[in-house]
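The instructor's notes for this session suggest beginning with a concrete chain rather than abstract definitions. Hand out the sequence below and ask the class to guess, before any prediction is shown, which regions might be ordered.
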Amino acid sequence: MRWTDYETNEFLLEQAGITSIEVMLIRTQLHWTGHMSRMEDHRLLKIVLYGELSTSCHKEGDPKRRYKDSLKQYLSLGHIDYHQWSTLASDGETQRHTIYSTASSFENAHRISLDEKRQCRKIYLSPLSPRETFSCVFCTRTCLFHIGIFSHQHACSKSG
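After discussion, reveal the predicted structure:
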């Protein structure tokens, strides 16, 4: 492959036989959390990880995102209940199998969704595909995009 080849990141990852960085992070987070859940309850690290903050520093309007929230999101990708995770993590072999199957299912679903998005873009941008056109109500001008006709109509209404 050369730098001038136009290939998607997903295609290159598949050709190289490696996983995306997002999947690596999910796998690492689930592995580390399984290790943390096996610790004794009085350990400071476990208290901080599973604890609730009385106050949080975040911008107004931003959600209060905690480690536990992202963990719940990743576990839901593998159809694992958050409350069952500590039981599941107590057995190392089951935990490893669950982590790899969750990461694999996430990666497959992510690649499929990216491929579908790409196909939709290619169909929409194809010169052979029929596009919706927008016509000005003041003159006969047509535009391919809604923002273009909106801008044109604004200018056309002032001049007319």
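Then share the key points. The beta strands are 134-135, 142-143. The chain has two domains: 9-54+64-129, 130-160.
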